[in-house]
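Hello again, I could really use a second opinion on something today. I owe you a coffee for this, so here goes:
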Amino acid sequence: MNLKRKVMSVVLSVSLFSTAMLISSANGLDEFEGVASTNIVAREEGVLGVVEEFIKTNFSYLYSEDDYKLVDSNSKVFIRYLQFRNKYRSTTLLESGETPDKYKNIKNEYKYKSIKYLNDNLVNIKVDVTTSFQYENSEEISSLTLPYEVYLNKIGSDWKVWSAKCEDDITNPFDNIENIDILSMCDMPDTSSKLMASNSYKNEKAKLDKISGLYKNEISKFYSGLNVDISNKKIDSDVKDIINSRYKNNNSSSIKERSYNGYIDRNSMYNYMMKYAKTYNNDEYLSFSGRGGDCANFGSQILYAGGATKGGGAMMDNAWRLWDTENGPAEGGYGHAWVAAKYLRGYIIRNGENLGPQGHVIRYGSSLKKGDFCFLDIHQDGGISHTTIVSTPGPNFKICSHTANHKDVPINTVHPYGKNGNYRSYVTLTALY
């Protein structure tokens, strides 16, 4: 530890010991390594400022910039990863109709989980970032919280990002994918800010080629899944060749006739959920009770009753997740977006085509309407695992659900916040095509 940090740590530790919890709370630090002054020191040295600016501009949940002046220029593998990650993110957003001008009042809140000084020139940061924003012509506030991990390397008097990851398994496969661990691929910098000696040019090139191949594969699968004419799209030629090959073999006849009005028949949704909340519509649908749960299946049925058209899908977890009951990979031809809670939620908030349900995340459950969704993390493991549908709006809104079967029951009765369903994701519907 350098002299400046050592002196500051001692002074702050002594003078602020009795108010350590107050300090950590005020600076957004829940768990930290060492004394309570760690967060103050990191802020004073500019570490946290770099983290926050980097996430906002280069590693955003929404659009990111291509100016990587906050990234260590020696970290070539991470820079290439970041370029492809952001290119993929902007491409999928634009294809979904989510242009930058659709967002307003974008704000980031940073909740620091740990700050570790590994040596005088290397820091590891773990932080939860809540991004909130509003869509154009809407006063509803949408928000999403994602966990980030960032390594920073000190060059002279400046801190630079060496590598980073984001556990974002829905909106971008580059952020949480099985065959790439970007933190491991980037290794760690040595004290002279150079790549480790063991990271030879050959190894570095292999990693860069892997990232490039991953991008080409993901973007081609994305366009293949959209089932659109890509002749006029600005896509790398080799990616376009892959897409054309898949497109020719794709059976587009499975997509049913589309509905273009987007009208949400909330009364029909209400009537359906009240009729089948305690029973099952076995004449028209399979039941998945005892086989992973029927909650998302029930929610999808309600969406269909309200006017949504089957056959759409979205890229999630490195695969095309179909919202359908005839052409999917699950039992009976059901698609994952139809029967799995996290994919149903992901499909609703990502869907940008005139096919199927569309919606976005909002901050307050009291703003949900009849037919909207409250997704839950009932296992408290950070993932979406349960689907409930709003039957009666209000501060303690009532829900219907399958597995367990509930009919117009207050949410706080069956899934009290902080006990069973510590994390809730409120999704309001904007259109059913």
